[in-house]
Amino acid sequence: MATEETALAPETPKMTDLLHQLREATTAEAQRDVMVKSILAGRNNEISATERKVLNMEFIKINSEAQAGLKEERARLKAATNR
After folding, report:
1. What is the spatial distance between Cα 13 and Cα 15, in angstroms, rounded to a whole number?
2. Contact of 62 with 32, CB cutoff 8 Å
3. CA dihedral of 74, 60, 4, 40, whole degrees rounded to 10
């Protein structure tokens, strides 16, 4: 099922590939590499402005989820040390 963001963007093969790479990236460095690729693809007109926005929204979503997980982990560790 397509998310609201991906429903807004045309699914070009380049867009699909970059979105897949971004979702599969497990490190911040790998995510940055994909975002650099998306910027270059946008500049080379391989993806549309809407597709770039979708990739950026996905990047923000992934990072927000990671930050929330880190915040929970810090709180758990702090609680464990205060016992």
Report:
1. 5
2. no
3. -150
